[in-house]
Write a structure and sequence with these properties.
The chain is mostly helical and 68 residues long. 74% of the residues lie in helices and 0% in strands. It is globular.
Length: 68
């Protein structure tokens, strides 16, 4: 089960990074690292929030608001 959960997390990370990159351009290594450190519930929250982002700067604001 732990392996399955880790696989799910990796899949969500990859999807979110691709979605943000497609919409706003390349992410910094620090941003990718922050996304990789998120739990599955946090990734799900970010996935929903990014639908409302108007700029890449909102990703950094999301990180601050979600106390990483």
């Amino acid at each position: 089960q732990e392996g399955r959960q880790e696989g799910e997390q990796i899949g969500e990370v990859n999807l979110i990074v691709r979605q943000i990159s497609r919409r706003f351009g390349a992410l910094s290594p620090a941003q990718v690292s922050q996304i990789r450190s998120l739990s599955i519930p946090q990734l799900e929250s970010l996935g929903e929030a990014l639908l409302d982002f108007q700029s890449l700067g909102e990703l950094d604001s999301w990180f601050q608001d979600n106390s990483l």
